[in-house]
Amino acid sequence: MAIEQGDGWAVGHLDDMGDGPGFRKVRRALDVTAFGVNAVVMPPGIASGRHYHDEQEEVYFVHRGRMLMRFGDGTEHVLEEGSFARVDPPTLRGFENVGDGDLVYVCFGGKDGYVGRDAHAPDGEQRVRAR
After folding, report:
1. Any residues with CB less than 8 A from the CB of 28 and at least 6 apart, and which?
2. What would the pLDDT profile of 47-99 be if each residue is shown by its tens digit?
3. Distances in Å between the alpha carbon of 92 and those of 36, 41, 53, 72, 88?
4. What residues have CB less than 8 Å from 97, skipping those under 6 apart?
5. How many CA atoms lie within 13 A of 5 on its CB side?
6. Among 65, 61, 14, which Cα is nearest to 42's?
7. pTM of the model
8. DSSP H/E element including 29
């Protein structure tokens, strides 16, 4: 599946955003403008450098594999597939693939708050709500 764009939408597959280990620039590939989003593929045993931000809060989602997340205060957590983590901008963080296969995680970053509930159904249709 190639990256496809239409009037107000874009879809694509991780594999269409790059090959091998490293960053997949989801924001650029899908033309996301409201927040940052990247996917990262890390082979087993590989660790990232540590980093922090000035303003950007981040949320990490482990799609595949096992991530050891280390924080600046010495705390460590192993995140399994399906796990999330939120990190404040100035908090030092680093990652390591502690699984047997590739680690694939997605990182979302932004600032200045939550938009709120602003979804609307078209005239004559009802919006389906989650239970």
Report:
1. none
2. 999 999 999 999 999 999 999 999 999 999 999 999 999 999 999 999 999 99
3. 18, 21, 8, 5, 9
4. 42, 43, 44, 45, 46, 47, 65, 66, 67, 68, 103
5. 6
6. 65
7. 0.90
8. helix 26-30
- Domains of the chain, by residue range, sit at 10-110
C-alpha–C-alpha distance, residues 11 and 33, integer Å: 15
**Taking Cα atoms as reference points, which of 19, 10, 69, 9 lies closest to residue 39?**
19
Token pair for 81: 């597939």
Q: Please give the CATH number for the structural domain made up of 10-110.
A: 2.60.120.10
Q: Which two tokens stand for residue 70?
A: 């280390």
Separation of alpha carbons 92 and 25, rounded Å: 22
